[in-house]
Design brief:
The protein contains five helices and two strands. It has about 80 residues and is an alpha+beta fold. Keywords: Endonuclease, Hydrolase, Nuclease.
Length: about 80
């Protein structure tokens, strides 16, 4: 991973549900997770890295982004809440 602004901390269980454990990941991967999954889904089914990687949309995104350079930033991985506005 490229250190710096391209990294985010992702709460495996959302903070709104008392989650404290975090993992470091690329910003675009973090944005994609929140664009695809609700906080309830994260809490109930996708609170482990392997479960996230197993989600079909996330797995397809990982296959696609794996071919990009580490510093790649994609403006299309927007948060689903912003799309609804």
């Amino acid at each position: 991973m490229v250190p710096g602004a391209s990294l985010n901390e992702h709460h495996l269980i959302p903070r709104t549900y008392g989650g404290r454990e975090t993992v470091t990941m690329h910003r675009i991967c973090h944005a994609k997770i929140h664009a695809v999954l609700t906080e309830q889904q994260l809490r109930d089914h996708y609170h482990e890295i392997e479960a996230l990687r197993g989600h079909p949309d996330i797995a397809a995104f990982i296959r696609w982004v794996r071919r990009k350079p580490p510093e790649f930033v994609d403006g299309h991985a927007t948060d689903r809440r912003r799309r609804k506005r």
